[in-house]
Structure formats: C-alpha cells, structure tokens
Amino acid sequence: MDIAFWQILLITLYSGFQIWDELHLVTSIGSPLFAGFFTGLVMGDMTTGLLIGAGMQLTILGVGTFGGASRIDANSGTIVATVFSIGIGMDPQQAMSTLAVPVASLLVQLDVLARFANTFFQHRIDTAIENHNYKSIERNYLAGLLPWSLSRMIPIFIVLTIGSGVITQAVEFLNNELGWLAEGLTLAGAVLPAVGFAILLRYLPVKKHLPYLILGFTITAIFSELFTDVSLIGNEVIGLSEEFAANFNELPLLAIFFIGLAITYIYYKNSTSKASPAGPSAGGSSPDQESVEASDNAEGEILDDEL
C-alpha cells in the first residue's frame, strides 16, 4: 500500500484541525462521519470512508464528555481505519473492529496528556489576568490549541508513514491464517453501532416517551420492509424497460422523516399548551404544573446545563 505524501499531509493537518473544531467551532467537521468523508475523499473512496465514519458515529452516539472526562478518540480511529481499509482493500466493518476502535481507545491517553499540558497555558493566563495583560491572555489562549492538535497529528502522521507495513502484514495474516477470527471481528464491527444506540437509550428519558419509541421503531420497520419490496419491483421493471428510471431508495427515510416531523410537531404543540398558565394569575405556576415538572425531571433526563 502506497500513500502519497500529499495525502499524509492533508490527513495529518485535518486531524489537528478537527479537535479544534470539536472543542471551539462545533461545525460538525470534527465528527467521525465527516472524518470518514474527508479521509475517503483524500484516499479516493468516499463510500468506504462514509461507511466507517457513520459506523463510528453511531458507536459513540450515546457517549459524552460529561464533566470534562475523556472519551475514545473516534475521529482518529476513523481516519486510520479508512486509510488502511481503502489502501489494503479491507472490509469496512472489519476495519472498524480491528483498527478504528483500538486506535480510538489507545488515543484516550494522549487526550489526557493534552489536557494536562494545557494547564501550563492556563496558569500563564491566570498570571496575565492579575497583571491585566490582555495580549498575553489572547496569545496563551490560542497557544492552548497546540497540545490538542499535536496529540492527534503526531500519532496519525507516525501511523501513516511508519505503521503501514506492519498493519498490512497483520491484516494479511488475519485474513489468511486466522480467517475465523476475521469473520468474528467483521461481525463485531457490524454490531458496534447498536452499542451506541444502547448507550444513548440509557441516558434518554425512555420511560417518559416509551410510546414514541415503540411507534418510531414500528414505523421504521414497516416502511423499510415495504419500500425494500417496492425497490425490488422497480429494479425488475428497469430490467424489462430501459425507459423506466425511477429510484425508490430514498423513499423509506423520506416517509419516516415526515412522520417523525409530524409527531414532533404534535408533541411540541401539546407541551406548549400545557406550559401556558391556565388560571387568571399571570405570575408563578400552579401547584399541579409544578408537580408535573418535578416528576418529569425526576425521570433522570439530562438537562442542557448538565451537558
């Protein structure tokens, strides 16, 4: 597998930028899905990049950095898995379980190191505040970007330049001598997105909105099955008539989207109508309303100020 220097350079620069976006800009450029898209674009196979990126995005769907805690570096794992999946021709699901998840877990340590290194600049900012040196505050604030970016750029650069031969040999050995293990890892990679959904459901107020959860699952299953059959019929018709060029692939998600939008709007209208004061008094809320709000918050729902 040969990776051009310009590809290594672009991917390395992106790995340093994405953590800044995740911490400051928050434009979704620093997400596993975009990391897979960008890496796949640079490597010449966006499909594989999107598959790995979407899988890792779902895997960490319910994982957050509450209280400043470190989580697995899914972006760097996505980058490494995408590069070698495209370069070696590795199955994307196998690349997720054998490369993306281990790399993401390993780089947690560098995330902690970056946080620790940033305390140097934080203490300098404290001193600058006491001295009213605003220029120094700005400089040290921007300098805090260096530990974060280097904690991603250095390992990514090393892996892409030095580790390609080792990973290539390991993957060949895995697929040839340990075929049974490779199949198991591929299956594990396919299951990983379900883990993200399970973690997310753990934190969502499922008991409070259980009917919506059941309804959404049922609608998704029905429409997916229905439009799968319609798509198969359309493919058969295309084979009989070249003039027939309809595409039904987007219909399931489109139908589910509009149904979910309608249900969300109904729920929103009901919530706003219940929140409006029913009595003549304009100030304060009724005891019944306060009890309802207290019971809602007692469900364990994570509020905005806890994120």
UniProtKB/TrEMBL annotation:
Write out the GO cellular component annotations.
plasma membrane
Transmembrane regions? 50-69, 142-167, 179-200, 212-231, 251-268
Where does the record place it?
Cell membrane
Task: Indicate the principal place this protein occupies in or around the cell.
Answer: membrane
Its protein name is PTS system, mannose/fructose/sorbose family, IIC component
Q: Name one GO biological process term.
A: phosphoenolpyruvate-dependent sugar phosphotransferase system
Keyword terms, alphabetized: Cell membrane, Membrane, Phosphotransferase system, Sugar transport, Transmembrane, Transmembrane helix, Transport
Q: Where is the composition biased (Low complexity)?
A: 275-287
The beginning of the lineage is: Bacteria, Bacillati, Bacillota, Bacilli, Lactobacillales
Biased amino acid composition, Acidic residues? 290-307
Membrane topology, record value: Multi-pass membrane protein
Among InterPro entries, the record links this protein to: GatZ_KbaZ_carbometab (IPR050303), PTS_IIC_man (IPR004700)
**What ranges does the record give for the region Disordered, renumbered to this chain?**
274-307
